[in-house]
Write a structure and sequence with these properties.
Layout: H1 7-10, H2 12-23, H3 33-41, H4 45-49
């Protein structure tokens, strides 16, 4: 099941975890140096944007 992530209603932690899962990182919900580094190194933004978020 895929759902839309809404940062206004889901909260920063949920959105951070979604981003970390999409980047293949440990999903701790904190945007720190590792997450920011992975974002900076990301070469495939369309795939990242279309990453299916699964509620588990």
């Amino acid at each position: 099941m895929s759902v839309n992530v809404d940062p206004l209603s889901d909260g920063k932690s949920v959105v951070a975890k979604w981003l970390q899962r999409a980047m293949g990182l440990k999903d701790d919900g904190v945007i720190g140096p590792k997450t920011l580094g992975a974002i900076a190194a990301c070469k495939d933004i369309p795939d990242l944007i279309n990453f299916p978020f699964h509620l588990t």
